[in-house]
Specification:
Layout lengths: L2 E6 L4 H7 L7 E6 L25 E4 L6 E6 L5 H17 L8 E7 L4 E8 L7 H8 L3 H9 L16 E9 L4 E4 L3 H10 L4 E4 L17 E10 L2 H15 L2 E5 L5 E4 L9
Parallel strand pairs: 1-2
Antiparallel strand pairs: 3-4, 4-7, 5-6, 7-10, 8-11, 9-10, 11-12
Length: 272
């Protein structure tokens, strides 16, 4: 049995451990990336040549911001635009020397004008969307990473029996800094798990700190990521609103007059 060392961010370790809870294909060690210097990595890693093509997802932004509200997976481009994108990527990926890893591509597409622009190419999977993809395809990309590391052809093994027609990956944001008063309790997570077992939640913060103490972008503070599968847009949005109301996040914001206001969660945009 080959040994695999799987490194991830500390905030993601629970997700990774859940993904591999039932695997028995590899002798797997899961550690946070902060510990990489404590390991001899080379014995664990081998390379294989494999290019993976996935259906794209579509990003929806909070109005008049560059902050994501959700990513919808899967999304289909019109045939002509899809062919243009595929032709460009078939030239670009080999030219970048990417021939031994998974990759993901971020792009902006104007479907009316049938034009697109590539923003960036990453030589890795998009970890944030691993559960999003699994909810629709039934296959967890994290498992295929182990095949690549072991020098095997990636095998899309089904890790989930029940799948859905779509999955939205929501990001919860506040657009100002705030002190974190309450995060979801274990009983809140359990209640959500019982009612919506298909929903996956990643809490990114903890209490008695400020949102600015955690990773954020210049205009917003992300504090949770929620994968909500379903078979229609309306069904997914209804579940999303209910789940957010059950989480019970509370923040305080110092106002100019010195008073403190309580905020439960950010109101999602109307334009969806």
């Amino acid at each position: 049995m080959k040994k695999i060392l799987f490194l991830c961010d500390a905030s993601d370790i629970d997700v990774v451990e859940q993904s591999f809870a039932r695997q028995d294909k590899y002798d797997l060690t899961i550690e946070t990336s902060e510990k990489i210097l404590q390991f001899g990595v080379q014995p664990y890693l081998e390379q294989t040549i494999e290019r993976i093509r996935n259906n794209p997802d579509r990003a929806v932004y909070h109005p008049e911001t560059n902050s994501f509200f959700y990513h919808a997976f899967p999304h289909s481009f019109a045939p002509h635009l899809r062919d243009k994108i595929e032709t460009a990527l078939k030239k670009l990926i080999p030219a970048l020397g990417i021939d031994n890893s998974f990759f993901n591509v971020e792009l902006r597409a104007d479907e009316e004008k049938q034009k697109f622009a590539i923003i960036e190419v990453n030589c890795r999977i998009a970890f944030q969307f691993a559960k999003t993809i699994e909810s629709v395809t039934g296959t967890d990309p994290l498992h295929m990473l182990c095949d690549v590391a072991a020098g095997q052809r990636p095998e899309p093994i089904k890790t989930r029996r029940m799948t859905h027609g779509a999955c939205y990956n929501f990001e919860l944001h506040l657009f100002h800094d705030a002190r974190i008063l309450e995060t979801p309790t274990q009983s809140a997570f359990e209640e959500i798990r019982l009612k919506y077992p298909e929903v996956h939640i990643r809490n990114l913060i903890h209490e008695n700190a400020y949102l600015s103490d955690f990773k954020h972008n210049p205009e917003s503070y992300r504090y949770a990521v929620i994968d909500v599968p379903g078979d229609s847009h309306e069904q997914i949005m209804e579940k999303y609103h209910h789940v957010v109301s059950m989480l019970g996040y509370r923040f305080s914001k110092a106002l100019e007059n010195g008073e403190v206001s309580g905020i439960v969660h950010e109101t999602p945009p109307r334009r969806i």
